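REQUEST FORM: STRUCTURE PREDICTION
Request ID: SP-0412
Submitted by: Lab K.M.
Chain count: 1
Length (residues): 97
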Amino acid sequence: MEYKKKNPRRLNYLLDIIHIVIGIAVVLLSVIAFLSPEEHLAFFPMIFFLAALLALVNGAARVRMPGPDSRRLAGLAALAAGVLLLLIAVISAMVML
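STATUS: Completed
RESULT:
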């Protein structure tokens, strides 16, 4: 069985696509939610969840990339921010119920 080496350019391309898609979704949901917050309360947990997903993906990618310890530390900080945003998403969803 042949071992395939992971291509970092392919990983960066995938991360760029994820950032663009989630970023556009967060911006659109935020604009709609803040134009009429009473009608679109359900968008707030989605916004926080998407932001958490983005931070978790970014943090995991930075932790796994080879390089200096500062990059790994930044990845751990992004993972912590992602967990915090996920907690905020859950709390905001529970408050809506």
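NOTES: The helical segments are 8-35, 43-64, 69-96.
Reviewed by: T.R.
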